[in-house]
Design brief:
The structure holds 2 protein chains of 2 kinds.
Chain A (H helix, E strand, L loop, with lengths): L5 H13 L17 H28 L3 H6 L12 H6 L5 H6 L9 H31 L6 H11 L4 H14 L6 H5 L7 H13 L2 H9 L4 H12 L1 H17 L2 H6 L8 H10 L8 H33 L3
Chain B lengths: L2 H12 L8 H29 L2 E2 L7 E2 L3 H7 L2 H34 L4 H12 L2 H11 L6 H8 L11 H29 L3 H9 L4 H29 L3 H6 L11 H10 L4 H26 L8
Antiparallel strand pairs in B: 1-2
Classes of the chains: A mainly alpha, B mainly alpha.
Chain lengths: ~325, ~300
């Protein structure tokens, strides 16, 4: 389901409470001195980076090769017999005969549709989940009402419910509502809130100075207006962060959509990729096509991340979310 | 919580006609979230436990069967095999992942604090499990995978990473290490940043070696964070599904049939929802026991700083 996994959630809870500000150690005095230990350290960093990055490069390299050449040159580090055929097959730009000749399955793969489904699911879930979570977070941080702490602790409790335990009964509920194999069915459990988003936003809403809010209230603004014109703009950065994280999680979700969707009409990219891999043509898997599809599926996240990397990475620094 | 009273007095004098109590607005604001909480967290929890006492194929009405599902589970060899396979996966995954993450976190702190390095290290965490699984399915392909080509160059011979019983679980565990080690490293890194720098200064003045500093200062002070990171990653690790589903689907034979895959197959291939629910309860109980002991052993709730 598209909510930060339990691990991310708890990570945030933990680090947020223990480590409010990243503390930089004073730079070591012998920073410029090159010691063998330091060289070894850098070598390890380089190895880690290669291990991390290589699969991404290999995806690209394979996607830009043609299948026949891949069999002959399995180890060439550059694309072999450069071809955009993999991408063409993914987007249905080749006829079935051409695709089969190039090592594809020739099956009718409606990739645009899966892409569209993923975009719809991730976008609607993000907007709805973040909005409703923000409303709740506001009620838990800036409104005065009886039972506030008790109700909030119930929400915190839901952080502890492991995902697997809710999936089967949630599937049954979606089935009873007649929403199996629909996009709404995939989105439904995630539309209302994510416990982690509420917790995360509450932390920031609590930090908005009381005086600012009171000044607006004295000027006659209602609490609803304070929320929309004061609290949300002042918390734009954390709201953006949680929105990006929600989008990424929704986009990458596999288990839940796999349960709910049966046909093309509700198939999202991750599920399509899984079955794409299973449709092996007689000649062996269409690796170029498969890697092209994988790359297309990963690309929006890579772009999103490239734009917001600093924000996401630093948010781990001070709040411990992913 | 002294704030509410303070605010109440201010408002009483400053804005007399404003309601002191926001209950109605608050109920309105938490209404959607509460639907989500009750319908998709609490209700399924209750329903899942109830289902585990029934026999149900979705077509006819659910039939109460008492402890029958649990009795069946106790003598089901595939269930016990799944428990073993899952534990094996968790042990390999967590030990390698934590060691790698700790090393990366230390290196980041000592050498490479740049956002660039941290971003690159986090990159695998942003692609889905499915993408990670497919890329490694290709890299480790028996015939054409570059991984196997390299092994052959090194004279080690090709390995059927996904097709042999002894390799399936370690391979899947390592794929998930690849995806999660950067994220785990950043969590540990955040913990490292919380250790006061003057302790290191003091150790340096006293002439302590780096190894000594690590075991004498870093590790003990990192323990609460490390403990919690461990608990979190173990909970996640027990719920492995995506990678197995995409690469081996439980095979060869039952070598990688982890609990979640077995649960899924019971529900959606056998349409035996009662038994699948009972298996989920078993997984929940295992998770609770493991978490309890981890919490006790790592004393994750307490800190030695102060």
């Amino acid at each position: 389901m598209s909510q930060p996994t339990a691990e991310a959630q708890l990570g945030a809870v933990v680090v947020a409470s223990e480590n409010p500000e990243p503390r930089r150690d004073p730079p070591p005095r012998n920073r410029r001195k090159i010691t063998p230990r330091k060289v070894l350290g850098w070598v390890v960093v380089a190895v880690v980076l290669v291990i991390t990055i290589f699969p991404f490069y290999w995806m690209l390299r394979t996607a830009l090769s043609s299948n026949a050449a891949l069999y002959a040159n399995a180890t060439s580090l550059l694309p072999v017999d450069f071809s955009l055929g993999g991408f063409e097959r993914v987007f249905g730009l080749q006829s079935a005969e051409e695709a089969i000749a190039a090592g594809g399955s020739g099956a009718d793969i409606d990739f645009w549709r899966y892409l569209g489904n993923s975009v719809v699911v991730a976008t609607v879930v993000t907007v709805s989940q973040v909005f409703f979570s923000a409303l709740a977070a506001y009620a838990f941080s800036r409104l005065q009402w009886r039972g506030r702490e008790l109700v909030f602790s119930l929400f915190l409790l839901s952080l502890m419910v492991p995902l697997i335990f809710t999936l089967l009964p949630n599937f049954l509920l979606v089935k009873e509502l007649g929403l199996v194999d629909t996009l709404l069915g995939i989105m439904l459990p995630n539309l209302f809130m994510a416990p982690f988003a509420i917790f995360f936003l509450r932390q920031f809403f609590m930090n908005v100075p009381k005086e600012v809010e009171e000044a607006a209230l004295i000027d006659g603004a209602g609490k609803i207006r304070v929320f929309f014109t004061l609290i949300t703009p002042m918390s734009a950065a954390p709201i953006a962060t949680i929105a990006i994280l929600t989008y990424i999680t929704a986009w990458n979700d596999y288990f839940w959509p796999l349960m709910v969707s049966y046909s093309d009409s509700s198939r999202v990219l991750t599920v399509a990729l899984g079955s794409f891999a299973a449709q092996t043509p007689q000649t062996g898997p269409d690796w170029a096509g498969l890697m092209a599809a994988t790359l297309v599926a990963a690309l929006p996240m890579i772009v999103l991340f490239a734009c917001f990397a600093k924000r996401i990475v630093n948010s781990i620094g001070f709040s411990g979310i992913k | 919580m002294t704030a509410p009273t303070a605010e109440r007095t201010t408002r009483r004098s400053g804005v007399p006609r404003k309601r002191r109590d926001d209950t109605r607005l608050a109920l309105l604001f938490i209404f959607p979230a509460t639907i989500g909480l009750v319908a998709f967290y609490f209700w399924p929890l209750v329903r899942g436990i109830w289902l585990s006492f029934t026999s149900w194929d979705l077509l006819s009405a659910a039939e109460f069967v008492g402890l029958q599902n649990y009795e069946r589970m106790l003598v089901d060899p595939i269930f016990w095999n799944a428990v073993q396979v899952t534990l094996y996966y968790v042990v390999v995954n967590i030990s390698v992942q934590t060691a790698a993450a700790l090393l990366i976190a230390l290196l980041m702190q000592r050498l490479a604090q740049s956002t660039m390095v941290r971003s690159l290290i986090l990159a695998p965490y942003l692609v889905s499990n499915v993408v990670a699984a497919l890329v490694f399915l290709w890299i480790l392909d028996f015939q054409l995978g570059i991984g196997n080509q390299v092994l052959e160059w090194l004279g080690l011979g090709r390995v059927g990473f996904f097709t042999t019983e002894e390799w399936a679980i370690p391979t899947i565990a390592l794929i998930n290490v690849w995806r999660h080690m950067g994220y785990t490293a950043l969590l540990i890194f955040a913990g490292l940043q919380a250790i006061p720098g003057n302790l290191y200064e003091a150790a340096k003045v006293d002439g302590a070696s780096e190894t000594r500093t690590f075991f004498g200062i870093t590790l003990p002070l990192l323990r609460p964070i490390l403990g919690l990171v461990l608990i979190i990653s173990v909970i996640g690790s027990f719920q492995v599904f995506d990678t197995v589903s995409v690469t081996t689907d439980g095979g060869p034979v039952n070598a990688s049939r982890v609990l979640q895959v077995y649960i899924y197959q019971n529900a959606f291939a056998q349409f035996d929802f009662g038994y699948a629910a009972a298996l989920s309860v078993a997984l929940l109980i295992i998770l609770m026991i493991v978490t309890f002991f981890q919490y006790r052993i790592t004393r994750a709730g307490q800190t030695d700083l102060n």
